[in-house]
Automatic annotation (TrEMBL):
This is GNAT family N-acetyltransferase. The lineage of its organism: Bacteria, Bacillati, Actinomycetota, Actinomycetes, Kitasatosporales. It comes from the Bacteria. Residues 125-266 form the N-acetyltransferase domain. Gene3D superfamilies: 3.40.630.30. Residues 1-29 are annotated as: Disordered. It comes from Streptomyces solicathayae. It holds the Pfam family Acetyltransf_1.
Amino acid sequence: MDHDATLATYDRQMRREARPDGPGTRVERVGPVVRQTGPEHAWNGVLWSALDGLDGAGVDAVVAEQIRHYTASGSTFEWKAYGHDAPADLPERLRAAGFVPDEEEAVMVAEATRLSADVVLPDGVELVSVTDEAGVRLVTEVHDRAFGGDSSHIGRQLLDRLAAEPDTVAAVVATAGGEPVSAARLELIPGTDFAGLWGGGTVEAWRGRGLYRALVAHRTRIAAARGYRFVHVDAAPMSRPILRRLGFTALTTTTPYVYGASHAGR
């Protein structure tokens, strides 16, 4: 994989030319910023910015305009700052404007057809495709137990996608004895080379048994069958060693800078 070429393609397709990620959302280019705006339960935030030609006051003015835009509708939002974004002091300016950084993640990418697609499950575990409200409830139950907090906004996003754009999302739950123990989803953006692996979570008692790896393989198999060249993940530190062993490469880092209430993430 050519790192620089892949990063440039990722920036163009997934950020500068981003498409709405669900019904009721819109993506717009406003001056040097590409942002998504939607309902309260949707992901709202800045996807890309071209601020390298501005002085400090100019950068601060652009940041202030995004705050005005989202707070006018009462929305929590993120500014997704990437490790290679300019200017170098953008994170400090976001914090000074009232944003709170979440955990830094690594943007990791692999060629879908080159990954091992063997789905190896522990004894007694089966994978169930999510197609309706009952399945979405299982996904949110896993997320609540695996990550803590309230994942209802993720459930509403998934329901919206399944109802309006079912070909753009594939969610799966791993069950053991009828109990949901792991869940994840795959987002398929038409016209791009990248399929996104999101929300992989496993309840504590089932960690370390290969479920994360199995759900990556399951979703990668779907992405490859649908013709996507790459799969990408915003990977937390715990996931990175597993993904590296599977064949993923780190392109850059991304940090969600959150403005407003507690849930803006995906």
